[in-house]
């Protein structure tokens, strides 16, 4: 046993030494900026305390054509569409970050709460009409054909909704998860708002469960290929029920999780242990539910805890069952675009699960490799440090952090002159010259994480290369909690 531990430690030390490390990273500074980014993604009427001042009011009539107020929320990425499925996941992750690490955020906590409430206020609007859940605002094809500021956009702002006749369980259940998780965040602060979020979470979950089906089938021509649901909707239903159980401990939701897990197991057994993001909730469910079981010795816990352990073994670089890839510089990779979403989301789960393992005085066995809680933290930190500049290019992938960071991100508002600098209207095609220009973006979207480098640690810094240069809310959201943890442990960590 001691030889195995020594082997694991030696492998870990070797892997951590693959990349030349900078002297230190200012995790507190990165945390502040990662939260500030969300202000740059705001849609609607901006508040008087808006800190990202180059952004102005936008999309002030969303929903008005059908008599519903759908103003607010977030633009998901560098476009001007409100895709509510990934938006809701981003809010869930911000809420989970605060629930786990909020006490470590210090003066950044109020800004994190504002970021959550900006999202939940909108989700309340999107679920305000009985029998409908609004899944998207804006025509994505029209929007993607234009390069214009959100303040200028004149493309169609069509609202798309799911219903009993045209179901969308994944988007509805993810909204329920976001509302339930956020209700816990606000419970000690504003009991009335918390209760409102929780009541709506239960209603939206019931709607998602009563009318099962994927929004691919009902809204496919508009949500695909942008945010098609590839993993099915069953994981979101279980995810939503798990969050509702965590929020109110009603046995019905626990029974729902247990009874429906077999359906999810059929997918997980196909190799989804390391899947977690806006589309797939598998690893997140196992980590979340394992925590709910940690102190109960519940016999139903075995599949969740076992699968959470398999998640660790799927991600750990030295594990014999690792299913992800790593670049030569040490960045975690999975197939698909916007790769940093995987590095941040899986790092969050590693960090959270390390806490649960520590509380249970437990380690994870991956064949002959022993994964201790400290090893999970070490892997998560390697990803954060890579993102912040400890990589072969010595480049930060967070805009505004460090001396070298992406200058030409794929983001309309950032790449076009601000309303302050150019108050005249820029129409749909009027921004094309700015898109094709090699000049740096005139407005810094501070805190934005781009999709990141390719698997060879190269980065083109090109607006046209949107797979690598576009920021998204769901890349940033998981990193907020991770940065809070490392900020709080800054003085005790050696580099």
From TrEMBL:
Origin superkingdom: Eukaryota
Keywords: Carbohydrate metabolism, Cellulose degradation, Glycosidase, Hydrolase, Polysaccharide degradation, Signal
Reaction it catalyzes: Endohydrolysis of (1->4)-beta-D-glucosidic linkages in cellulose, lichenin and cereal beta-D-glucans
Signal sequence, renumbered to the chain: 1-24
One term of GO molecular function: cellulase activity
GO terms for biological process, alphabetical: cellulose catabolic process
EC number: 3.2.1.4
Catalytic-site annotation from UniProt: 410, 461, 470
Protein name: Endoglucanase
Source organism (scientific name): Cephalotus follicularis (Albany pitcher plant)
Taxonomic lineage of the native organism: Eukaryota, Viridiplantae, Streptophyta, Embryophyta, Tracheophyta
């Amino acid at each position: 046993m001691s030889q195995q531990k020594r082997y694991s430690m030696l492998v870990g030390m070797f892997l951590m030494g693959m990349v030349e490390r900078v002297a230190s990273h200012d995790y507190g500074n990165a945390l502040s900026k990662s939260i500030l980014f969300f202000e740059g993604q705001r849609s609607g009427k901006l508040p008087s305390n808006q800190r990202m001042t180059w952004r102005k009011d936008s999309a002030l009539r969303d929903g008005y054509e059908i008599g519903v107020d759908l103003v607010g929320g977030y633009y998901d990425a560098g476009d001007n569409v409100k895709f509510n499925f990934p938006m809701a996941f981003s809010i869930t992750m911000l809420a989970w970050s605060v629930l786990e690490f909020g006490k470590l955020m210090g003066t950044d906590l109020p800004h994190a709460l504002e970021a959550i409430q900006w999202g939940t206020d909108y989700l309340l609007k999107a679920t305000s009409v009985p029998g409908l859940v609004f899944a998207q605002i804006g025509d994505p094809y029209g929007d993607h054909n234009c390069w214009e500021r959100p303040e200028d956009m004149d493309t169609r702002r069509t609202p798309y909704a799911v219903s009993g006749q045209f179901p969308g369980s994944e988007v509805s259940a993810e909204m329920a998860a976001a509302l339930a998780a956020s209700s816990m965040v606000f419970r000690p602060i504003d009991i009335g708002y918390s209760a409102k979020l929780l009541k709506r979470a239960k209603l939206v979950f019931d709607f998602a469960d009563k009318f099962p089906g994927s929004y691919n089938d009902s809204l496919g021509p508009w949500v695909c290929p942008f945010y098609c649901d590839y993993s099915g909707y069953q994981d979101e239903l279980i995810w939503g029920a798990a969050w509702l159980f965590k929020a109110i401990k009603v046995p019905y939701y626990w029974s729902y999780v247990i009874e429906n897990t077999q359906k999810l197991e059929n997918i997980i057994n196909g190799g989804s242990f390391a899947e977690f993001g806006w589309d797939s909730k598998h690893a997140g469910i196992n980590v979340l539910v394992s925590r709910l079981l940690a102190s109960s010795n519940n016999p139903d816990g075995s599949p969740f805890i076992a699968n959470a352990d398999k998640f660790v073994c799927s991600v750990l670089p030295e594990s014999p069952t690792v299913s992800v890839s790593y670049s030569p510089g040490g960045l975690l990779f999975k197939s698909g675009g916007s790769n940093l979403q995987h590095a941040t989301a899986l790092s969050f789960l590693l960090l959270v699960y390390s806490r649960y393992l520590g509380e249970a005085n437990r380690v994870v066995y991956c064949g002959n490799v022993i994964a201790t809680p400290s090893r999970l933290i070490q892997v998560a930190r390697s990803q954060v440090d890579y993102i912040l500049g400890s990589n072969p290019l010595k480049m930060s992938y967070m805009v505004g952090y460090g001396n070298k960071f992406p200058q030409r991100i794929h983001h309309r508002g950032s790449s076009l002159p601000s309303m302050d600098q150019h108050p005249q209207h820029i129409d749909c095609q009027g921004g094309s010259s700015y898109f094709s220009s090699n000049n740096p973006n005139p407005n810094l979207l501070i805190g934005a994480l781009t999709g990141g480098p390719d698997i060879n640690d190269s980065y083109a810094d090109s607006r046209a290369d949107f797979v690598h240069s576009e920021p998204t809310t769901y890349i940033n959201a998981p990193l907020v909690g991770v940065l809070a943890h490392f900020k709080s442990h800054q003085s005790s960590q050696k580099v």
